[in-house]
Design a protein that fits this description.
The chain is α/β, with parallel strands linked by helices. The protein is 35% helix and 18% strand.
């Protein structure tokens, strides 16, 4: 569970196993192929393992929705291993919550998982996310 500076809580996890506790009310699933339908509201985003999302704009929209919903709902983000793509998405949520983009990866590694955000490309994506989240087309490479 990642606690953002605002107090919002977001559960990051691996798609391989649902952890104990109440299920989410909304989930983002980050995978190269669609995931099996969940019993709760969810959204799938095409995002290959160790890569960047296929549609950065769709990711920005989905992360804004997850961040807004986390104010009042149980939200989770998951990928196959729960570290690279999930960590990247959590770092982007931290940016939305006010963490400077250059500090968001360290924030997530300190509070969620030491190995979160696995690749240099994912780290660059987080640093550029502030502009992407505000619809600045110069950051979506």
């Amino acid at each position: 569970m990642l606690a953002l500076p605002s107090g919002r809580l977001v559960r990051g996890r691996s798609l391989r196993a649902l952890p104990p506790g109440p299920p989410p009310q909304f989930a983002l699933y980050l995978a190269a192929r669609p995931v099996a339908p969940a019993q709760w509201e969810s959204r799938w985003l095409r995002w290959p393992d160790f890569r960047l999302p296929a549609d950065p704009g769709a990711v920005a929209d989905a992360l804004r929705e997850a961040w807004q919903r986390a104010a009042t709902e149980r939200v989770e983000i998951a990928c196959a291993g729960g570290l690279g793509r999930t960590g990247t998405a959590l770092a982007c949520l931290a940016v939305l919550d006010g963490v400077p983009p250059g500090e968001a990866v360290a924030f997530v590694r300190e509070r969620y998982a030491r190995r979160a955000v696995e690749t240099a490309g994912q780290r660059r994506f987080v640093r550029r996310f502030g502009g992407l989240a505000t619809n600045d087309p110069s950051v979506a490479e």
